[in-house]
Design brief:
By secondary structure, the protein is an alpha/beta fold. It folds into two domains: 1-63, no CATH class; 64-166, NAD(P)-binding Rossmann-like Domain (Rossmann fold). It contains six helices and seven strands. It has a five-stranded mixed sheet with strand order 3-4-5-6-7, with helices on both faces. It has a two-stranded parallel ribbon with strand order 1-2. β3 (72-75), α4 and β4 form a beta-alpha-beta unit. α1 packs across α2. The mean pLDDT is 96.
Length: 166
Amino acid sequence: MGHGIAQVFASNGYRVILVDISEEQLNKAMGAIKDNLQYLKNCGLGPKESIEEVLSRMDPTTSWEPLGGADFVVECVFEDLRLKQEVFKKLDQLCGPEAIFASNTSVISISQIAEKAKRKERILGTHFWNPPYLIPLVEVVKARDTSDEVFEFTYEFLRKIGKKTR
């Protein structure tokens, strides 16, 4: 799911840092993205630019450090509350004060995920429908402490990249 979401942002002109647990997982993800882009091109739905141009905006890595400069982070780890809380706690320490943190969870409360983070007001849910590069729907979910500003920015940002939000 994460690689499909990364593909959506890169296809819309954004620089993407794709973090995964191993080089093997990253290679699989980048291969899937390339295949997806080729499929879309073959169907006449692909990006206007070349596949190589889209891929050039993606930085696959096993290191969290490049996320330090990220403005918008979408977490896509598997559905485990403690793991998601650890991810957000780490992002809270690593990223700048204006960064927005989104979880792609479909079953865990965003408020519970945000419990261990310091900047709870900058955390919300963005549940992308699968596959995200084909299906335009994204559910934007406000947590108990999510600020209105973060919610509105995320809602409009996703609409700007062609997503239908609700």
